[in-house]
Each structure stands twice: as C-alpha cells, then as structure tokens.
Design brief:
Layout (H helix, E strand, L loop, with lengths): L3 E6 L7 H8 L3 E9 L2 E12 L6 E4 L2 E4 L1 E2 L65 H16 L3 H7 L3 H4 L2 H18 L1
Antiparallel strand pairs: 1-3, 1-6, 2-3, 4-5
Length: about 190
C-alpha cells in the first residue's frame, strides 16, 4: 500500500512508534535513525504515513506538530550503481565500480589511489558514483520531488522535468536562429 507520507520534527524519544501512531492516527510510523560512531540511533524526526490525505498538523499529548511532505532519497543499487532499485533486486550481469565505472567490483579496482581516473557511472563526471552532487543524482531527486508533489507517476514526472533544450520545439528553435541571422545580416 502506498501512503501519503509527512514528516514531523521535535518528537521526544520517550514516545514509542506505537504511541506516535495512536496519537497521530497514522497508518504508518517510522522514526528516522542516524549513524553515530557506527551505531544507529533514533532522532527526533518521525515519518508518518496516511492512506488518505495527510493532515496539516498533528497533536501528540499537549504539543502540536506541523507536518511537511516527506521526499524520499533516490534508491541506488550498490551493484550496478543505477537509480531506482536496490542490490537485492538488481538484474545486471556484472557489477560496476563506484570509483572508476569499470565492469569490476571496488575491491579489485586499480584506480582506487589514482584520483585522476575517477569516473561516475551515471553522468561520466570526475567523481564517485555515490556523490550526492552528481547531476544524475540531482535529476532523479528532482523527478522524485515532482512525482511526490504532483501525484504523477515517476515516468510522467520524468517526462515533464526534462531540460528546456529537449522540450524546445523545432519551430521555436528556428525562429530564434532566424532572429539571430537577421541581426547579423542587418549589421553587415
């Protein structure tokens, strides 16, 4: 089942997930965890899921929490390094190196120490495939945000968020270039 997910922050760790679920009348509850010194620890931020429309605010005890829309981070496979699935569901024949984008695993990479041979498997840039500043990662993240806010499917959101160059119609392109051509001929 797909839930409309929202986030609330500042929830005391004394509240259990069941207490929050009952108090917020939510269908799904998950407390966000953060890794500290190699150990996962709960934070004061909780994700709430609702089968129907999500509320603007939630009251827990005597405190009112404002909700904001939850935007999930893009899933990235640790095997093929593509977005949209996890390693357990990967159908790629071979693994890809996150450091040099080669068809081998990271453990046997010869470019591990050579920073000039770093290559992203998604965009071809000179960074690791796990870099969150990667243009491929940012594009997928923007499409997920569009999909969440508009309610469109991922495919529909991806089509509507293509760069302007791909959406530009040939006639507009010709008109713009014709204008430049006329300017050049009038200046001569």
């Amino acid at each position: 089942m797909k839930f409309n997910k929202v986030v609330i922050s500042g929830v005391s760790d004394q509240w259990t997930d069941e207490d929050v679920k009952d108090g917020a009348d939510a269908d799904y509850v998950r407390r966000i965890r953060r890794r500290v010194d190699g150990e996962l620890r709960p934070t004061a931020t909780v994700i709430l899921g609702y089968a129907d429309d999500s509320p603007e605010s939630v009251k827990l005890g005597y405190r009112l929490f404002r909700t904001r829309t939850y935007f999930a981070d893009p899933l990235q496979c640790h095997r093929c390094l593509r977005f949209g699935h996890v390693q357990a569901k990967c159908r790629a024949a071979t693994a890809r190196c996150p450091r040099c984008a080669g068809n081998h695993e990271f453990d046997v990479c010869t470019a591990r120490e050579d920073s000039t041979r770093i290559k992203c498997a998604n965009c071809g840039g000179q960074h690791s495939a796990k870099f969150r500043g990667c243009s491929g990662y940012q594009t997928v993240k923007a499409v997920l945000r569009t999909s969440t806010t508009t309610g469109k499917s991922y495919a529909e959101a991806a089509k509507s968020s293509k760069p302007w160059r791909q959406r530009q119609t040939p006639s507009r392109y010709r008109r713009r270039n014709m204008h430049l051509l006329l300017l050049r001929t009038s200046q001569q």
